[in-house]
Amino acid sequence: MKVIDHIQQAKSTLFSIEILPPLKGKSIQSIFDGIDPLMEFKPSFVDVTYHREEYIYKKREGGYLEKVSIRKRPGTVGICAAIINKYHVDTVPHIICGGFSREETENALIDLQFLGIDNVLALRGDSIKSEPEFVPEPNGHAYAIDLVKQLKQMNNGTYMENDLADVAPTNFCIGVAGYPEKHYEAPNMISDMKHLKAKIDAGAEYIVTQMFFDNAHYFEFVKKCKDAGIHVPIIPGLKIMTTRKQASALSKLFKIDIPQPLLEQIEKCKTDEQAKEVGIEWCIEQSKELIKANVPCLHYYTMGTSEVTRRVASKVF
After folding, report:
1. Residue 167 to residues 104, 159, 300, Cα–Cα distance (Å)
2. What is the pTM of this model?
3. Terminal-residue alpha carbon distance, the chain
């Protein structure tokens, strides 16, 4: 079932989660262990992130260095299939530009279609650590809008090989990311909103926001979207702060503001356990306010912390 159908048929705010694939070599049981405590809240869908390749240099005989590509967290497609099989819950695999040519993207999407997966979240993805800025693959996509266009073309029955006979169109529901506090590479919010509108015009059907800790940012973002002619559902993404260091780390990594009242509470904490309690209570209040505003869905970035997500959900849903 498509995300957009879940939203349109819902009589109240939905609950959804986002998970990370386990590190290479780990069992999928770690995924199930993280999802099991949250099933009582009936998640409408589960997002599974995709992590592109990284490069390391291995020393070989003779002293020369060989550049080797690795993926630390593979398995997004397989995890989606396993979740559907075990829980009968819809999944949303993330599809990224980085590390894929257009042909590889098409083949991945065909695999998803064969598995009966109806949803994808189209993202550019981050640059790899060894590169100062994002560099697309040869014959790959540079921007998320290019992914959206390819998805839309496949939904219309257009594949890269024009001479295919009896082509079956795909039927993906396409989601994209939105940034209430502006994408860090955008020169200003007007420019960022222009690019978001272009993704919607290209065929995206809903938006999931970057995490935020001040609901005012979300409400202002929704208003800006409407003013720009964007009228698709906008799902707020929420992260529960669980350690003292996250106040500065999340701000630096995701280029987001930490509200002063939250920062002051975190700074008073002597231990991470105390900081976790502050983070849980803050997210509960965030969630309640957003539900009161009739948001379509609350999307929690679990990041391997299903227990704190369960505690928040138990007070909200």
Report:
1. 18, 8, 37
2. 0.93
3. 22
pLDDT band at 229 (very low <50, low <70, confident <90, very high): very high
Identify whether the C-beta of residue 294 lies closer than 8 Å to the C-beta of residue 235.
no
Region of residue 201 (left: phi > 0; alpha: psi -120 to 50; beta: else): alpha
**Per-residue H/E/C for the chain:** CCHHHHHHHCCCCEEEEEECCCCCCCCCHHHHHHHHHHHHHCCCEEEECCCCCEEEEEECCCCCEEEEEECCCCCHHHHHHHHHHHHCCEEEEEEECCCCEHHHHHHHHHHHHHCCCCEEEEECCCCCCCCCCCCCCCCECCCHHHHHHHHHHHHCCCCCCCCCCCCCCCCCEEEEEECCCCCCCCCCHHHHHHHHHHHHHHCCCEEEEEECCCHHHHHHHHHHHHHCCCCCCEEEEECCCCCCCHHHHHHHHHCCCCCHHHHHHHHHCCCHHHHHHHHHHHHHHHHHHHHHCCCCEEEEECCCCHHHHHHHHHHHC
| CATH, residue 59 | 3.20.20.220
Residue 186 φ then ψ, to 5°: -75, 140
d(CA 156, CA 217): 36
Backbone torsions φ then ψ of 56, nearest 5 degrees: -125, 160
Q: Return the residue matching tokens 């064969």.
A: 114
Q: Chain-wide mean pLDDT for the chain?
A: 92
Domain range enclosing 278: 3-316
Tokens of 123: 């993202």
* Location of structure tokens 């509470």: 265
The count of domains in the chain is 1
Residues across the chain: 317
Over its C-alpha atoms, the chain yields an Rg (Å, rounded) of 20
pLDDT category, 51, cuts 50, 70, 90? confident
Q: Cα–Cα distance between 79 and 32 in angstroms, integer? A: 10
Q: Please, are residues 136 and 98 in contact by the beta-carbon 8 Å criterion?
A: yes
Residues annotated as catalytic (active site), given as ranges: 18
Give the amino acid at 102. R
